[in-house]
Amino acid sequence: MRLRIDLHIEELSLEGVPPSDRLRVAAALRSELAQQVHRSGLPATLSALAGRDLIAERPLALGHRDGPEAIGRAVAGGVWTTLQGGAR
Predict the structure, then answer these.
(1) At a CB cut-off of 8 Å and minimum separation 6, what does 82 contact?
(2) CA-CA to 31 of 20 to 30 Å: which in 22, 47, 72, 80?
(3) What are the residues whose beta carbons fall under 8 Å from the beta carbon of 25, sequence distance 6 or more?
(4) pTM for this one?
């Protein structure tokens, strides 16, 4: 059985990232989250978060040379932390 999870990110503000990189950032974010679910399973807190708005405002520690894939992975890490019940 395949499980489908829909995660809606209404706004993602990445200062200094060219608009032309947005699709690569999004693809890396999706891929990293899917890998995290595959490695760790779904967070136990996920059902309690269903239908709730979550805000994860935290700076990412990236260098100016980090590409869209690294940015997407870093954003996914922040989202994953929030889904596990981290800072909201």
Answers:
(1) 54, 56, 88
(2) 47
(3) 14, 17, 68, 69, 71, 72, 75
(4) 0.76
DSSP state of 20: G
C-alpha 10/C-alpha 72 separation (Å) is 16
Does some domain include residue 51? Answer: yes
| Alpha helix segments (H runs only) across 1-88 | 22-40, 46-49, 68-83
Specify the number of domains making up the chain: 1
> Residue 56 and residue 36: Cα distance in Å, rounded?
18
- For residue 3, being part of any structural domain is answered with no
Contacts of 74 (CB under 8 A, 6+ apart): 60, 61, 62, 66
Alpha-carbon distance of 19 to 14, in angstroms, equals 9
| 29: containing domain | 19-83
Note whether residue 63 is domain-resident: yes
7 pLDDT band, cuts 50/70/90, is: confident
